[in-house]
């Protein structure tokens, strides 16, 4: 319950437009009768400010600035379950696959750098869950972190709908950019 509330607060906090003016639209969205899926790339300054406000030490802020953060928000518009699974998603650039920085990667890096557990917990709460089932009218979100690139990113995946996942939507977003300051 706390994670769901925190995720909703996170989405509200990050509601502004935040990419460089020369990048494509900053809040690409896919909406249909079953769900609404929105992406919002975040600038390094925006992410740094968020974590600085929570007391994160400078060395952690420096690591955060190196990554590409994209907030994913999903709302279930249907009267059944909508299934979100990052295992079904791919991130590519014209040069090939783009590496997603997983929770385990962050945890290993935080441990290596000696980041206090309380900060690790806060950071973990801001990441998108790997898998989540959305109940009718439920809205959740969190951050996906990628290796920073200047190349346009194509994001593809699937969203399943229904108790037995009997309906599948292919999702594709093109020309998504890591936000810049």
Model description:
The chain starts with a helix and ends in a 5-residue tail after the last strand. The longest helix is centred in the N-terminal third of the chain and has 12 residues, at 2-13. The protein is α+β, with helices and mostly antiparallel strands and 181 residues long. Mean pLDDT is 87; it is low at 1-25. Helix content is 28%, strand content 36%. Strand 10 and strand 11 form a beta hairpin. It has a single domain (2-176), classed as Immunoglobulin-like (Sandwich). Strands 4, 5, 6, 8, 10 and 11 form a 6-stranded antiparallel sheet that branches. The chain is built from 5 helices and 11 strands; from the N terminus they run αββααβββββααββββ. It is globular, with a radius of gyration of 16 Å.
Mean pLDDT: 87
**Major sheet details:** 6 strands, antiparallel
CATH-assigned fold name:
Immunoglobulin-like
Q: Tell me the CATH architecture.
A: Sandwich
Which helices and strands occur, and which strands form pairs?
Elements: H1 2-13, E1 29-31, E2 35-42, H2 44-52, H3 58-66, E3 67-76, E4 82-85, E5 90-93, E6 96-97, E7 100-101, H4 103-113, H5 117-126, E8 131-134, E9 139-147, E10 153-161, E11 167-176
Antiparallel strand pairs: 1-2, 2-3, 3-9, 4-8, 4-10, 5-6, 5-10, 7-9, 10-11
Features:
181 residues, alpha+beta, Immunoglobulin-like, 5-stranded antiparallel sheet, 5 helices, 11 strands
